[in-house]
Design goal:
heterodimer; A: two-stranded antiparallel ribbon; 22% helix; B: 2 domains; 0% strand; globular
Chain lengths: 112, 450
C-alpha cells in the first residue's frame, strides 16, 4: 500500500479527481494549504503599497492506494495537474504500514 | 398668511389690457412673497414651503445618511485587515449616533442660526423655537426641521471620514472623545464660516456641497491624526493588505449613489441646478475611476479594483465643491484632475513624507477637496450657479477659493493637533502593541470575524 500526496494548483482539482476516479481510486482527502517552492511568491500592490506574498494557496491531495495502482495514480495526477508553468506542484509517495476502515474493522487493502 | 393687495400694481395702468392684467397678478404674487419675508426677519413662515422641494430633500437626506452607514462603513472596513473590520465599522456607527444627538443639541444652532462672522447663536439649542412651519433663511422652500436633518448627515459623514487615517490602531474610547471634540471645534466653526453666514462665505468663498467643510477639513484632520497617533505596527515591513475589497466595492457603490443626494441635495431644491450637480458628480466619478485605473495599467501593468474605486471616490470628493457651479464637461475634466492628483498623493506623497494614513483620508479626500475648491475658482460658470470663475474672466474667485483653502487647512490642522494632545491627557490614543497585533475587533469590542 502506498500513500500518494500531491500538492497541486487549486483550479486543477476537478480534472485530477475525475481522472483518479476513472482509474479506480474511490476516495481522497483534500486540504487547502499555503506554501512555496521554485515559484516563490508574488507581489500585490494596494494604492502604491507593495507587499510580497511568500506563501501561495495550493491544494494537498492524499490518496491511499494498493502498491500496483500507485504508479498509475502518479501518472494520472501528473498528466492532469500539469500546466507547464512554474508552480504546478509536487507528488510524494510513501509506504503505508497499516490501514483500517473504522466502521467495519476491515484492514489493509480491504480497507482502501 | 393672507395676500396683501399690491397698490403699486393696482394704480399702474390707466388703460386695462389683458397684458397688464396678467402683470398685475404676477406683481401681486411678488408682493405676497415680500410680505412673507418681512413678517419674520430671522425665520420666515410656512407658506413658502414647496412640496416638491420637500420631497426631494427628504430623499437626499436619506441618501446622505446611507453614505455613512453602510456606505463608508463598508468602504473603509473592506480595506483594513480581517482583525479590524468590526472596529472600523464601529467608528462609522459611533459617528452616526453621537453626532446626530450633538447636532440637535447645539450643532445646528451654532452653525445655522445667527449671522456672526465666527459662530452662530444658541437660539435653536435643542431645536428651541423650531416649529412645524418654520423655515431657515438658507432654504426657504423646505421645513426648517428637514434642513436641520439634511445638514446633520453632512456633519456625521465628515466626522466618520477622519477615522480612516488612524484605522487599525486607535483606541475606541479615544476615538469617541476625539470625534466629539473634532465636531465641536473643527466642523461646527468651519460649517458656519462657509455655509452659515460666517466670514468665509461673506468673503465670497464658494463651496457647493463641502469640498472645504467636509473633505479638506476631514483630510487634514486625518493627516494630522495619522502623524500624532503614529504608524501602524509593521508599516512598510509587513503585509497589511486589505481583508476584503469586495466590501469596499459595495461601499463605493453606496457612496456614489448617496453622493447624488449629497451634491444634488445641496441645491436645497428640486430644480435644474440639482440635476446639473448630479450630472457633474456622476461624470467626475467615472472620469476619476478611469484615470486612476489607466495610470495603474500603464505604470504597473494591471488596473486594480482598489485603484478604480479610489479614483471614483477621488472624483466624487473633488467635484463636491464645484458641482452646482460647473457644466457637465467640466465635471469630466475635474474627475481626470482628481484621478491624477489623488493618485500622486496616495503613492508618491505618502511614501515621501512617511505618514501612515491607513485608508488615505488625506490622499483622497483632503487632496480632492483642495483640488476641487481651486478648480471651482477656475471653472465656475455663471449660467449654472450664478458665479464666474477664471475661464469666464474672473480671477478674483480663484483668490477667494485660495483664501478658503488656507483658512480651512490651518484651522483644521491646528485644532486637530491641540485636540489630540488634549485627549491623550485623559486616555492613550493608541491601543497597546499586544492589542494592535491581536486586532481591535477582539480587544476593543470583544467580538471577531471567524
Amino acid at each position: 500500500m502506498k500513500l500518494v500526496v500531491a500538492i497541486i494548483k487549486p483550479f486543477k482539482l476537478d480534472e485530477v479527481r475525475q481522472a483518479l476516479t476513472a482509474i479506480g481510486v474511490h476516495g481522497m482527502t483534500v486540504t487547502e494549504v499555503k506554501g512555496y517552492g521554485r515559484q516563490k511568491g508574488h507581489t500585490e500592490i494596494y494604492r502604491g503599497a507593495e507587499y510580497v506574498v511568500n506563501f501561495l494557496p495550493k491544494l494537498r491531495i492524499e490518496i491511499a492506494v494498493t502498491s500496483d495502482l500507485a504508479e498509475r495514480a502518479v501518472e494520472v495526477i501528473t498528466a492532469n495537474a500539469r500546466t507547464g508553468q512554474i508552480g504546478d506542484g509536487k507528488i510524494f509517495v510513501t509506504p503505508i504500514d497499516h490501514a483500517l476502515r473504522i466502521r467495519t474493522g476491515e484492514t489493509d487493502s480491504d480497507a482502501l | 398668511m393672507r395676500a396683501i393687495p399690491c397698490r403699486a400694481a393696482a394704480s399702474a395702468a390707466p388703460v386695462e389690457t389683458r397684458l397688464t392684467r396678467r402683470r398685475r397678478t404676477w406683481l401681486g404674487a411678488g408682493c405676497t412673497l415680500l410680505a412673507a419675508g418681512f413678517a419674520t426677519p430671522a425665520f420666515a413662515q410656512a407658506n413658502t414651503i414647496n412640496t416638491a422641494d420637500t420631497a426631494w430633500m427628504i430623499v437626499a437626506t436619506a441618501l446622505v445618511l446611507m453614505m455613512t452607514i453602510p456606505g463608508l462603513a463598508l468602504f473603509y472596513s473592506g480595506m483594513v485587515r480581517k482583525k479590524n473590520v468590526l472596529a472600523t465599522m464601529a467608528q462609522s456607527l459611533a459617528a452616526v449616533t453621537m453626532i446626530s444627538i450633538l447636532w440637535v443639541a447645539f450643532g445646528y444652532s451654532l452653525v445655522f442660526s445667527g449671522h456672526g462672522p465666527w459662530l452662530g447663536t444658541l437660539d435653536r439649542w435643542f431645536l428651541t423655537g423650531m416649529t412645524m412651519d418654520s423655515v431657515n433663511p438658507a432654504a426657504k422652500t423646505i421645513p426648517e426641521a428637514l434642513f436641520m436633518l439634511y445638514q446633520m448627515t453632512f456633519a456625521i459623514i465628515t466626522v466618520a471620514l477622519v477615522a480612516g487615517s488612524v484605522a487599525d490602531r486607535m483606541r475606541f474610547s479615544a476615538y469617541l472623545l476625539f470625534s466629539i471634540g473634532w465636531f465641536m471645534f473643527v466642523y461646527v466653526p468651519l460649517a458656519h464660516w462657509i455655509w452659515g453666514g460666517g466670514f468665509l462665505g461673506s468673503a465670497g468663498v464658494l463651496d457647493f456641497a463641502g469640498g472645504l467643510v467636509v473633505h479638506l477639513s476631514a483630510g487634514i484632520g486625518g493627516l494630522v491624526a495619522a502623524k500624532v497617533v503614529g504608524q501602524r505596527h509593521g508599516y512598510g515591513t509587513e503585509n497589511l493588505s486589505p481583508f476584503d475589497l469586495s466590501l469596499a466595492v459595495v461601499g463605493t457603490g453606496l457612496l456614489w449613489v448617496g453622493w447624488f443626494g449629497f451634491n444634488g441635495g445641496s441645491a436645497l431644491a428640486a430644480n435644474s441646478r440639482a440635476v446639473m450637480a448630479i450630472i457633474a458628480t456622476h461624470l467626475s466619478a467615472c472620469a476619476g475611476a478611469l484615470t486612476w485605473g489607466a495610470i495603474e495599467w500603464s505604470t504597473r501593468r494591471k488596473p486594480s479594483v482598489l485603484g478604480m474605486i479610489s479614483g471614483a471616490v477621488a472624483g466624487l470628493g473633488t467635484i463636491t465643491p464645484a458641482s452646482g457651479f460647473v457644466t457637465p464637461w467640466q465635471g469630466i475634466v475635474i474627475g481626470i484632475v482628481a484621478g491624477l492628483a489623488c493618485y500622486w498623493a496616495c503613492t508618491w506623497l505618502k511614501l515621501r513624507f512617511k505618514y501612515d494614513d491607513s485608508l488615505d483620508v488625506f490622499g483622497v479626500h483632503g487632496i480632492g477637496g483642495l483640488t476641487g475648491t481651486l478648480l471651482t475658482g477656475i471653472f465656475a460658470t455663471a449660467s449654472i450657479g450664478g458665479a464666474s470663475g477664471l475661464i469666464e474672466g474672473n480671477p478674483r474667485l480663484l483668490l477667494s477659493q485660495l483664501y478658503g483653502v488656507g483658512v480651512t487647512l490651518i484651522w483644521s490642522a491646528a485644532a486637530t493637533f491641540v485636540l489630540l494632545k488634549l485627549v491623550s491627557l485623559f486616555v492613550p490614543l493608541r491601543v497597546s502593541r499586544e492589542h494592535e497585533l491581536e486586532g481591535l475587533d477582539i480587544t476593543q469590542h470583544g467580538e471577531a470575524l471567524q
